[in-house]
């Protein structure tokens, strides 16, 4: 960041009339904490750099992808296809980052001066400049160098989610909360898309260099990893995913409440053989968050009553187009004052607690593996699963994060919905306060739906 200044710098030309007018929005005098935040942000305001290069990339449109396209492209992996994948990333990543930079630039200046949002802007700007300068990738050596750039950038951006969440919570009195939620949704949805593209290419590169890969082999011997193509698991079994996430959730609850706690059973019924193509780390995050919420609710509701707590019932329904997973608990439901804010990032009655908890999480990748607590207990008896190492890049990065098992951040459900909607699915929750809640996760079974596109933000 540049040298500190205690006055807002001159508004750059790209802000436009509407954004300049928004710069004069003042926080109410009755909120000294908010005024302090704005003043603190002004001292670390980002170095805005009007760039003709950014203008050029913003004019480009993102090219959407589907799970089926990624699968077909990577199934028969040759050097030519690997280089095509690299060059798709080379053009697509700076395009998508450029659109998000422009979105940040259209925010009111008093908002983007927030230190957390300014930090995200600087990260994105560095990534954009780094990616746009990569020349055409023609050889395996070029690709290896490019993969090093991708991996370095993915690690750097592990701070983005908590920084965005903190920034949005801190500036919510300076901007309409609905617009802040739309901004957060847009930023995170775009982040998911970029990580899918980057991690898929890294996984394909790893496959290509592995000793068991034979580019010219024909089916059925073309690959020893026929269950997956890069990050995509071709036949995710809903029941197995639920059981795998259930095991991790039980371990989490024991670490949080102690080994003496009685845990509810997780019963899985319905079309237990249902399979579909999916990115396992996405599915694990969604199911893991839902099971954790249900199990915590049941434990909190029953821990002082004695006796075995009621089970969590998981029903799997398969039809020609979708697989639906319903998770039902008897944990007392969701409080009336919380329910309207369930899917929001900037709204709700627990803002101060969320700020305090998020400040304790320096990095957050949005993976189920982050629920583990490293270095505690004997893990030799932990159940293994064919999904355990399915996401080698995002999953292996879990060691970069530290999240206490009982730390509630308030962003798990809205992030889960973003993951569900990304591949044309959905996530809804129905609550009966005083009894329990039902979560409905719908997944596109065929994998032929394009990723959900991210639109330009407009603020009025």
Automatic annotation (TrEMBL):
<dbReference type="Pfam" id="PF10436">
    <property type="entry name" value="BCDHK_Adom3"/>
</dbReference>
<keyword id="KW-0067">ATP-binding</keyword>
<dbReference type="Pfam" id="PF02518">
    <property type="entry name" value="HATPase_c"/>
</dbReference>
<dbReference type="GO" id="GO:0005524">
    <property type="term" value="F:ATP binding"/>
</dbReference>
<feature type="domain" description="Branched-chain alpha-ketoacid dehydrogenase kinase/Pyruvate dehydrogenase kinase N-terminal">
    <location>
        <begin position="64"/>
        <end position="222"/>
    </location>
</feature>
<feature type="compositionally biased region" description="Low complexity">
    <location>
        <begin position="388"/>
        <end position="401"/>
    </location>
</feature>
<dbReference type="GO" id="GO:0010906">
    <property type="term" value="P:regulation of glucose metabolic process"/>
</dbReference>
<keyword id="KW-0547">Nucleotide-binding</keyword>
<dbReference type="InterPro" id="IPR039028">
    <property type="entry name" value="BCKD/PDK"/>
</dbReference>
<comment type="similarity">
    <text>Belongs to the PDK/BCKDK protein kinase family.</text>
</comment>
<dbReference type="GO" id="GO:0004740">
    <property type="term" value="F:pyruvate dehydrogenase (acetyl-transferring) kinase activity"/>
</dbReference>
<feature type="region of interest" description="Disordered">
    <location>
        <begin position="369"/>
        <end position="401"/>
    </location>
</feature>
<feature type="domain" description="Histidine kinase/HSP90-like ATPase">
    <location>
        <begin position="281"/>
        <end position="437"/>
    </location>
</feature>
<dbReference type="GO" id="GO:0005759">
    <property type="term" value="C:mitochondrial matrix"/>
</dbReference>
<protein>
    <recommendedName>
        <fullName>Protein-serine/threonine kinase</fullName>
        <ecNumber>2.7.11.-</ecNumber>
    </recommendedName>
</protein>
<dbReference type="InterPro" id="IPR018955">
    <property type="entry name" value="BCDHK/PDK_N"/>
</dbReference>
<dbReference type="InterPro" id="IPR036784">
    <property type="entry name" value="AK/P_DHK_N_sf"/>
</dbReference>
<keyword id="KW-0496">Mitochondrion</keyword>
<dbReference type="InterPro" id="IPR036890">
    <property type="entry name" value="HATPase_C_sf"/>
</dbReference>
<dbReference type="InterPro" id="IPR003594">
    <property type="entry name" value="HATPase_dom"/>
</dbReference>
<keyword id="KW-0808">Transferase</keyword>
<keyword id="KW-0418">Kinase</keyword>
């Amino acid at each position: 960041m540049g040298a500190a200044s205690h006055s807002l710098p001159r508004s750059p030309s790209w802000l436009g009339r509407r954004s300049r007018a928004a710069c004069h929005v003042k926080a109410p005098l009755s909120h000294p904490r908010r005024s302090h935040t704005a003043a603190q942000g002004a001292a670390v305001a980002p170095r805005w750099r009007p760039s003709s290069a950014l203008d050029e990339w913003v004019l480009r449109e993102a090219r959407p992808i589907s799970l089926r396209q990624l699968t077909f492209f990577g199934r028969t992996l040759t050097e030519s296809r690997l280089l095509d994948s690299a060059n798709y990333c080379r053009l697509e990543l700076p395009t998508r980052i450029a659109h998000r930079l422009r979105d940040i630039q259209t925010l009111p200046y008093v908002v983007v001066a927030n230190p957390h949002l300014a930090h995200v802007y600087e990260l994105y700007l560095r990534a954009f400049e780094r990616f746009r300068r990569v020349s055409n990738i023609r050889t395996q050596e070029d690709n290896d160098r490019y993969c090093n750039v991708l991996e370095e950038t993915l690690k750097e951006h592990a701070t983005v989610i908590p920084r965005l969440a903190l920034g949005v919570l801190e500036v919510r009195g300076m901007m309409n909360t609905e617009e802040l939620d739309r901004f957060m949704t847009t930023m995170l949805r775009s982040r998911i898309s970029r990580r899918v593209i980057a991690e898929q290419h890294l996984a394909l590169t790893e496959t290509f260099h592995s000793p068991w890969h034979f580019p010219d082999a024909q089916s059925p011997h073309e690959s020893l990893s026929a269950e997956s193509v890069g990050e995509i698991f071709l036949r995710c079994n809903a029941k197995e995913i639920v059981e795998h996430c259930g095991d991790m959730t039980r371990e989490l609850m024991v670490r949080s409440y102690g080994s003496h706690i009685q845990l509810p059973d997780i019963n899985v019924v319905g079309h237990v053989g249902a399979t579909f193509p999916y990115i396992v780390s996405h599915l694990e995050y969604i199911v893991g968050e839902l099971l954790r919420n249900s199990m915590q609710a049941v434990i909190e509701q029953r821990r002082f009553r004695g006796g075995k707590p009621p089970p969590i019932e998981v029903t799997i329904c398969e039809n020609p187009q979708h697989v639906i997973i319903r998770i039902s608990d008897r944990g007392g439901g969701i409080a009336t004052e919380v329910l309207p804010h369930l899917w929001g990032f900037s709204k709700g009655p627990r803002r101060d607690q969320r700020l305090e908890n998020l400040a304790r999480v320096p990095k957050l990748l949005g993976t189920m593996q982050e629920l583990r607590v490293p270095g505690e207990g004997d893990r030799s008896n932990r159940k293994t699963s064919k999904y355990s190492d399915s996401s080698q890049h995002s999953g292996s990065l879990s060691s970069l994060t530290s999240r206490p098992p009982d730390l509630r951040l308030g962003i798990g459900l809205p992030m889960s919905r973003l993951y569900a909607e990304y591949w044309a699915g959905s996530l809804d929750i129905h609550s009966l306060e005083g009894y329990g809640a039902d979560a409905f996760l719908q997944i596109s079974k065929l994998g032929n739906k394009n990723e959900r596109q991210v639109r330009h933000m407009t603020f009025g």
